[in-house]
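Quick review question:
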């Protein structure tokens, strides 16, 4: 079994797991039966994990969303979809590998699926640019969505990015225009769009593929206009106060559901999706199927009207103060 990596607040769990592994080694190397002690410690570890994960702070959830072992877009594509055929290039400049996408089937229904891919090891992270897309990535995504519209296919997008790439070359090729164009075109795309935030949903990099009819968030993902570190650097001139920024930003799934920014939260296994990917994928598949059913049979006009109302509802509030008149 591959060795697990633990976050700083999971250290008590890590200590228990180390003891369990040591006891398993002793049992394998000797004739002594200590299986009851191992079972007892395993139950204690499971309960400790539940206790820690029942009271997470926004900053701790941010760390889980960024976990190096967390499932990425291609992991979910392989588990949730069949007959996936990847399509490449934006037909203008290049093929941005930070965004992957192509034709597939979801529960037998032909569809277009696309999302951000961060990369597992150093080499792949370089190729994928850590999931930070350049203009050609967003233009590739738009090309695939327009192709889906041409053939009346639903679109499934998966968001997992720290944000759009801020480099000079990206700015030279029209980064902000590419993001703005995607938002504009997705708002009027004449097929259902289902978006899932599977890790980080950072700023315009996330918005460029998340204008949707249904927005789903995994329990331990985040969705924000800016990273906690970026917010802290602006407000307090230091990224050391990222934890305070995370608390103030309202980046967690439950907070965003209460604000009406997202439609549904999909629970994850205790310890996060990376602890039991099969279970996490099964729960997400049910969530995606339910979200698609809600919009699959809508007429184009009704679909677009609902999407427009959804976008217009962001930021509404009720003033409870008594009138001064």
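Suggested answer, residue by residue:
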């Amino acid at each position: 079994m591959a060795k697990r990596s633990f976050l700083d607040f999971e250290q008590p769990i890590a200590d228990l797991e180390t003891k369990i592994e040591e006891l398993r080694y002793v049992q394998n190397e000797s004739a002594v039966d200590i299986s009851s002690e191992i079972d007892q410690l395993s139950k204690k570890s499971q309960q400790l994990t539940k206790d820690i994960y029942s009271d997470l702070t926004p900053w701790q959830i941010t760390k889980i969303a960024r976990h190096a072992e967390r499932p990425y877009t291609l992991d979910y594509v392989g588990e949730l979809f069949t007959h996936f055929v990847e399509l490449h290039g934006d037909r203008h400049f290049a093929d941005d590998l930070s965004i992957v996408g192509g034709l597939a089937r979801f529960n037998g229904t032909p569809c277009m699926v696309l999302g951000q891919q961060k990369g597992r090891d150093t080499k792949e992270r370089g190729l994928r640019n850590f999931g930070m897309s350049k203009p050609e990535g967003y233009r590739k995504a738009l090309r695939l969505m327009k192709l889906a519209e041409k053939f009346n296919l639903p679109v499934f997008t998966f968001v997992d990015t720290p944000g759009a790439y801020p480099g000079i070359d990206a700015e030279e090729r029209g980064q902000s225009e590419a993001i703005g164009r995607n938002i504009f075109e997705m708002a009027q795309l004449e097929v259902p769009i289902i978006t899932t935030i599977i890790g980080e949903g950072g700023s315009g990099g996330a918005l460029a593929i998340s204008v949707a009819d249904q927005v789903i968030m995994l329990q331990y993902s985040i969705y924000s206009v800016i990273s906690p570190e970026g917010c802290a650097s602006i407000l307090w001139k230091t990224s050391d106060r990222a934890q305070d920024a995370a608390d103030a930003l309202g980046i967690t799934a439950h907070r965003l559901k209460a604000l009406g920014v997202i439609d549904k939260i999909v629970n994850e296994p205790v310890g996060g999706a990376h602890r039991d990917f099969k279970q996490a994928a099964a729960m997400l598949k049910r969530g995606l199927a339910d979200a698609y059913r809600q919009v699959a049979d809508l007429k184009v006009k009704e679909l677009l009207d609902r999407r427009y109302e959804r976008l217009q509802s962001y930021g509404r509030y009720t003033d409870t103060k008594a009138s001064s008149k």
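Why it works: The two ends are 70 Å apart (CA to CA). The chain has a mean pLDDT of 92.
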